[in-house]
C-alpha cells in the first residue's frame, strides 16, 4: 500500500465511497504526521485554521470510515482517548507501544517476536489471527532515572 492521494482515491472508489476534498485533507493530516497517534480532536485542530468548512463531526465520521476500510489503525492507550495512526505499506501487523505510567509518553517499537506464538495459537485454537496489538506499561528512561535519583536520597 502506497500512502498517497491515488491510494486513498482507489480505496474509497473500490468500496463505493466518494473521494472528497474533506477526506483528502483529513488523510493529508496523517501523511504529514506519520509518527504521531492522533485523536479526532488533534486532527480537527490541524484542519480548522486552513479548512474552516470541515467540522468535527466530519472528522469523526471520516476517521471511523478510514479505520473500517483499513486505511488507519484505531489505538487506545487506556487513557480514555481513541487515537489513530496511518497504516503503512510494510506493516503486516501494527507496531507495538511502550507507555510510560508517569509522563504518558508513548514509544513505538518494531521488534516483533510473536510469529511463533501466533502460529501455535492458530494451530491449537483453530483460530485465524489477522493482527495483534501489544502494549507494555512501565517507565521511560527519563522517568526511571528520576525515580532512581529520588530513591538514592
UniProtKB/TrEMBL annotation:
One of its GO terms (molecular function) is transcription cis-regulatory region binding. SUPFAM superfamilies: Winged helix' DNA-binding domain. InterPro entries: FUR (IPR002481), Fur_C (IPR043135), WH-like_DNA-bd_sf (IPR036388), WH_DNA-bd_sf (IPR036390). Fe cation binds at residue 132. GO terms for biological process: negative regulation of DNA-templated transcription; regulation of secondary metabolite biosynthetic process. Keywords: DNA-binding, Iron, Metal-binding, Repressor, Transcription, Transcription regulation, Zinc. Binds 1 Mn(2+) or Fe(2+) ion per subunit. Binds 1 zinc ion per subunit. Gene3D superfamilies: 3.30.1490.190, Winged helix-like DNA-binding domain superfamily/Winged helix DNA-binding domain. Its cofactor is Mn(2+); Fe(2+); Zn(2+). Pfam families: FUR. The keyword Transcription applies. Belongs to the Fur family. This is Fur family transcriptional regulator, ferric uptake regulator. The lineage of its organism: Bacteria, Bacillati, Bacillota, Tissierellia, Tissierellales.
Amino acid at each position: 500500500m502506497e500512502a498517497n492521494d491515488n491510494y486513498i482515491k482507489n480505496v474509497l472508489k473500490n468500496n463505493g465511497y466518494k473521494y472528497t476534498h474533506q477526506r483528502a485533507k483529513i488523510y493529508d493530516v496523517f501523511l504529514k504526521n506519520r509518527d504521531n497517534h492522533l485523536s479526532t480532536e488533534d486532527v480537527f485542530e490541524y484542519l480548522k485554521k486552513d479548512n474552516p468548512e470541515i467540522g468535527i463531526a466530519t472528522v469523526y465520521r471520516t476517521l471511523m470510515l478510514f479505520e473500517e476500510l483499513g486505511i488507519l489503525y484505531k489505538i487506545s492507550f487506556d487513557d480514555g482517548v481513541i487515537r489513530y495512526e496511518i497504516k503503512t505499506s510494510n506493516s503486516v501487523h501494527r507496531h507495538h507501544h511502550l507507555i510510560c505510567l508517569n509522563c504518558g509518553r508513548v514509544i513505538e517499537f518494531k521488534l516483533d517476536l510473536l510469529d511463533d506464538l501466533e502460529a501455535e495459537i492458530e494451530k491449537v485454537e483453530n483460530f485465524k489471527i489477522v493482527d495483534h496489538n501489544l502494549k507494555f506499561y512501565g517507565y521511560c528512561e527519563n522517568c526511571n532515572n528520576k525515580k532512581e535519583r529520588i530513591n538514592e536520597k
